Amino acid sequence: MKRILTFLCVIIPACGGSYAPLDTVNAVDLQRYAGTWYEIARLPNSFQKNCWNSTAEYQIINSETIRVINRCEEDSAGGEIDDVTGKAWVVEGSNNAKLKVSFFWPFKGDYWILELDEDYQWVAVGTPSREYLWIMAREPRWDAVPLEDVKARLAAKGFDIDRLVYRNNYPIAARNIAAPTKGEIK
Fold it and tell me: For the whole model, what pTM was predicted?
């Protein structure tokens, strides 16, 4: 519950305001988008401060509504599972590329699909404020995403990609190591 309240306190200010235009993908097939996504990288945020191995699961309720289940392991890999369930609604006229997400009624936050693999194997999701950004993949592997290309496109959209935090909360630059290979990811 505390993560939900923290999320609300952080995301609500990002819901309003005037921001530079932010392009999304042209259209999203919600049936193909549904399922589990593994976080590969994100911009730091207070509601995921101690989260490891984060996932987001999307379940279709109807043509305009999606159940969202966010999960992570608290404090370390193998830690206690922390989860929160919410709903997302398609923003009219967005071809399913813009959603409003709520984990606590009546508050809703933006969830815009900015980059999406044509085979729905990876995605970049963010907010028009550029404060929130997630890069996710269908598999919990760094090599599942053309990371450098995606980061370059997100930087061109105004996101501070130098602040990205990678799987298990460790920025690559701070660890001074290369991204792990498929066998090294936990």
Answer: 0.81
